[in-house]
Write a structure and sequence with these properties.
Helices cover 59% and strands 16% of the residues. It is built from six helices and five strands. α1 crosses α3, α2 packs antiparallel against α4 and α4 crosses α5. The N and C termini lie far apart (99 Å). The relative contact order is 0.14. With 172 residues, it is of the alpha+beta class. A five-stranded antiparallel sheet has the order 2-3-1-4-5.
């Protein structure tokens, strides 16, 4: 990589990290290209990104973002995952670490808060933004369904009473 390519890489990564809510730093030594490709595919499906980058370039890209405190995690062969959803990258990384022994979570950052590996794992157990939105929508719709049922009940009762009187008149 020449200097202009490094500057472009740093600028692009910095721009991505400016809008991210979560950064996960991982070690992935010994992983095959197919395994890394599979991990990237899973990250992309969850709305997250994953990049293997040089530590020095990643640390420079972190400058000016809310994740500056994570620069101490970049030692040895590392990679970085990030997402706008504060849970997405953590969920995928934790699930993948359980399935693949070569992949380890070092730590990360949630906003300005630095997290260790156990913090990332705890974060991965929380529901994602989409899951929270779905449950909130369900909570909002439930009372409306109950109100509609209550409003329809008196009409149904009147119809049953009239039907009963009609059957009574026919029998007499």
């Amino acid at each position: 990589m020449d200097r202009s390519q490094k500057e472009a890489t740093i600028a692009a990564l910095n721009l991505e990290l400016q809008s991210a809510a979560l950064v996960v730093v991982t070690k992935q030594s010994g992983m095959t290209v197919a395994e890394v490709t599979d991990l990237r595919r899973k990250m992309r499906a969850a709305g997250a990104s994953y990049k293997v980058t040089k530590n020095r370039l990643a640390v420079i890209a972190l400058k000016g973002t809310q994740f500056e405190g994570t620069e101490g995690l970049f030692k040895g062969p590392t990679a970085i995952a990030w997402s706008k959803d504060p849970v997405a990258a953590a969920k995928v990384a934790t699930d993948y670490a359980k399935a693949n022994d070569k992949f380890k979570i070092v730590g990360g950052g949630l906003g300005a808060v630095q997290l260790d590996a156990s913090g990332i794992e705890a974060l991965s157990k929380l529901p994602s933004l989409d899951e929270l939105r779905a449950s909130l929508l369900g909570m909002i719709q439930t009372p409306a369904t109950r109100v509609a049922g209550v409003l329809q009940a008196p009409g149904g009762q009147v119809a049953r009473v009239l039907a009963a009187y009609a059957k009574k008149d026919e029998a007499a």
